[in-house]
Amino acid sequence: MTVKFIAGPPPSRQRNTKHALLVAQLKAHPNQWAEIQEKETSARASSAAQAIRSAQLASYAPAGSFQAIARTVVEKDVARHVVYARYVGESEPAA
Length: 95
What we know:
It is a single chain. The chain has a three-stranded antiparallel beta sheet. A hairpin with a 2-residue loop joins strand 2 and strand 3. The model has no long low-confidence stretch (mean pLDDT 90). The chain has two helices and three strands. It is of the alpha+beta class and 95 residues long.
């Protein structure tokens, strides 16, 4: 039997796993817009976009690393409230 040594077990409960996976995909395609979420209302879509821009979730830190916008898209007389985002990189600290 082979033993595999590791630094430690993963946390028992990972937080914001779906956002961490989403962020990894956005970072793999910097500066490219992606449709990332669909919300029930335009207000919820706008709120989600603001949360991404301001890094209210740690996955999107530091603030300003991601751009995000919300749009209502009408296709075949059906309105969808969509959040778009892209990774623009971390800004350089002021000298």
